């Protein structure tokens, strides 16, 4: 089992379309949340009166690496302002969360686990020498409180116990003190054991439970990888076993799970929470780094290139709480909600539809993904995901130029003062792979790099679009890591208002997306033609997609879900065509904000 280490935001920088995506994020909600949202702007974490639990740490978890990846002095200064204010509140015994001493017993220490992880992220980006001792004191206080029974794990802290292990590992590597391993064992003993919940995942129920909460489950996937060494336990690949159960009964076409908010079965009209997508990405990043198993990297790509941008507006000022594979409208439900435990506005694009956790937490998705482009171990550099990037260390520089996943080629420009091995992960779906014009295989390809020389490596491969079988006798079009959908034209209805002291105004108001074109299609002949169009200023543009797949479709009598006027039925009423065959451009799933993704295939 090969373990990999991450580079820091000082060493690894985005370029090309990835940098443009991060710049959009910085100009949108992520880069302005501290200016316009009271739960961050006026948080108790910085001495204010608003929420003092998870929202500021959630936001900083993405805002900090975003600032340092873009080398933006204003963003960096604002991140430091928040960190300084948080550190100033640390008590003499090490406690740092904004509550009184009397409130600690009933304070859900999920916030302790989260803020320590965020402080490690800040240290990795800034090198701030205050952080190791601050984190040490937080964890030592946490250990003492848990050991003496002055606090205990319950609710979110109980179900997210493993999140503390990011900071425990960081601190143990620095100080090597045994109490840190004892803390790990205490958290494990009081934490939830997800392997005992699997029967609950096989049949969705319309009831909110921690055991089936989608964000808990996507976080959980990394639990063994981040904890086993500190617990002196063997790694058993529990993540793969648990993921397979979740996928079998709740899997989505974009390789997450339905969860609105709790597990919701296999229907393409159930939702997936945005928090779950970014947490699943983070789990897969750590799973790949810990195990070296390329399955996690390929699954990570599918989430990042489809599910993440699909649920964000082009300008990243608004987002959905939940996305749906077959999403023919984003309009408020006038009566009961379609979703199992979410309200009838959870699928709207807005500032904080349904609940504000995703408003704060979605920020980590793109920056942490960007930091997963390259990893290292000993004298080997791993190109983990083909993302346009620059890697610069004391003795080497690698520039990766690519428009992957929209185009299947990449060029590495390398200068180095030492010999090393460049290991390139080429996806398993790649065909006719060439490296500098010579045939090669997919998988991990080791390329020796000579010190003192300039090296250029050109990699190219082919792949073909195909129909991927889905439940309910439906199919989806997939091409490499990209999924394609029938786009539905829409009218955007803007809604500006104030609720509970939170203002929604352009550009961070709420939007309903009202369909203006047909959606009731089936795939006709299984002829699919890929057309690349070039990556524009908005990489996942809903108006100018960088790639399309030309397909033949026929309209069918699909029907609506019982009781709803803006939701298609889970599966069509009939496969009898009601139109001639039409040629249409399928858009990348991420670009089609209203879409039909899982359709029947009418075979000749």
Structural notes for this entry:
- With about 600 residues, this protein is an alpha+beta fold.
- Strands 15, 16, 17, 22, 23, 24, 25 and 26 form an 8-stranded antiparallel β-sheet that branches. A 7-stranded antiparallel β-sheet has the order 2-7-8-9-14-11-12.
- A hairpin with a 2-residue loop joins strand 16 and strand 17.
- Helix 4 packs parallel to helix 6 (about 110-125) and helix 6 packs across helix 9.
Record field, number of beta strands: 26
Question: Mean pLDDT, nearest integer?
Answer: 97
Pairing-aware structural class of the strands and helices? alpha+beta
**Count of helical stretches:** 17
- Rg over CA atoms: 24 Å
Oligomer category: single chain
Helix residue percentage: 25-40%
Percent of residues in beta strands: 15-25%
Low-confidence stretches: none
Measure the end-to-end span: 47 Å
Query: What form results from the Cα inertia axes?
Result: globular
Largest sheet: 8 strands, antiparallel
Fold topology:
Layout: E1 5-6, E2 12-14, H1 16-27, H2 33-36, H3 38-41, H4 55-69, H5 73-88, H6 110-126, H7 131-147, H8 155-159, H9 165-175, H10 178-190, H11 214-220, H12 223-227, H13 238-250, E3 271-273, H14 274-291, H15 294-310, E4 322-324, H16 357-361, H17 365-370, E5 374-377, E6 380-383, E7 389-392, E8 396-402, E9 409-416, E10 420-426, E11 431-435, E12 438-440, E13 443-449, E14 454-462, E15 466-470, E16 474-479, E17 482-487, E18 490-495, E19 497-499, E20 502-504, E21 510-515, E22 521-523, E23 529-532, E24 547-555, E25 582-588, E26 595-596
Parallel strand pairs: 6-10
Antiparallel strand pairs: 1-5, 2-7, 3-4, 5-6, 7-8, 8-9, 9-14, 10-13, 11-12, 11-14, 15-16, 16-17, 17-25, 17-26, 18-21, 19-20, 22-24, 23-24, 24-25
